[in-house]
Specification:
This protein is mainly beta. The protein has two helices and eight strands; from the N terminus they run H-H-E-E-E-E-E-E-E-E. The longest helix has 8 residues, at 18-25. Bound molecules: zinc ion.
Length: 134
Amino acid sequence: MEAAEKRHNAQCSNRDYDFFYEGLVDRKILIQQCAACEKLRQPPEPMCPHCHSLEWKTKAMAGSGKIYSYVVHRHPPLPGFEMPHPVGLIELDEGVRVVAALDPIPIDQIKIGMPVTAEFFQRDNVAMVRFRRA
Ligand code: ZN
């Protein structure tokens, strides 16, 4: 964990999510995967809900999916973000859902079910992922 803390901004993370933010530094979306039954789980948790194993690894996602749902954040202002700020719940092709910014898509064009693809970028020196139209 020490190496992870040096490579990503710990303000965005906690011990459960360090691997996720560490993956973003390498431009990867890493999702927790049970080492016993191989099922993916998101958000991260210590025990597999399917087989109760405590052993896990990570798997890199392809970075494509569709918009399952979204909200438009209008207030309060978020430092480093333009307002209003669209935030999506993205269903990845692998079947898990992640929360990420949709700011590359004009708000009036965002649609449930829209195919999207991951875009890795830096915001205030923090490695992040957002999604744009595929
Ligand atoms: Zn399992």
